[in-house]
Each structure stands twice: as C-alpha cells, then as structure tokens.
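2024-03-11 09:14:02 DEBUG pipeline.ingest accepted 1 chain
2024-03-11 09:14:02 DEBUG pipeline.ingest length=101
2024-03-11 09:14:03 DEBUG pipeline.predict start
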Amino acid sequence: MSSSDIEVWDVFSGIGKGQRIPGQSATIMLNMPLDFQVYDMFWKATSIHICADGGTNRLFDSMTECPQKRNEYLPDFIVGDFDSIRPEVHPPHVVLIVHAI
C-alpha cells in the first residue's frame, strides 16, 4: 500500500468553524455534564442529533438561561429504555427508539 492509497479523515476539521462534517455524521448527547457551547459546536457540525435517554434532560437543562432555544435544538432520535428522561423534557414529535433486553 502506498501513501497515495491512504485517505485521511479529519472529522473535527469543521467543528467550531461553522462548517458541517461531510456526509452523514451524528452528535450523541449522553447523560453527563457538558457545556452548551461545546454541544452547540458539535450540533452545528453534524447532520443527525441523538440523545441517549437521560442525555435529553442534559440538553434541555443546558438551555435554562435561554429557554427559547429549546425548539431549535430538538434531537432527531432519543434512544434508550427511558428510565431517566423526565416527562416534561420529552418532545412529543421526536422518534423514540426503545431497546429491551
């Protein structure tokens, strides 16, 4: 394999510069603290937005100082068993993906 056969992907090149990562890319919000400005950079750089269960609460809570932005940052999917997501946080039109074991 020669060096001309190698393609380097820099998935972080567009983050923070207002550019989208080319192709299908996703941001997944987990149930852990994260500064909204950091999440916002990833949100704007990716085409699919997913919250993992309680991560939906984190996204919602990260916008307490600017609640009008909540309608701009609705996840495309919420994935999980929904034991952590608070009822007032769940957007009614978002696709829920339930996994059961």
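2024-03-11 09:14:41 DEBUG pipeline.report The first strand starts at residue 26 and ends at 29.
2024-03-11 09:14:41 DEBUG pipeline.predict end
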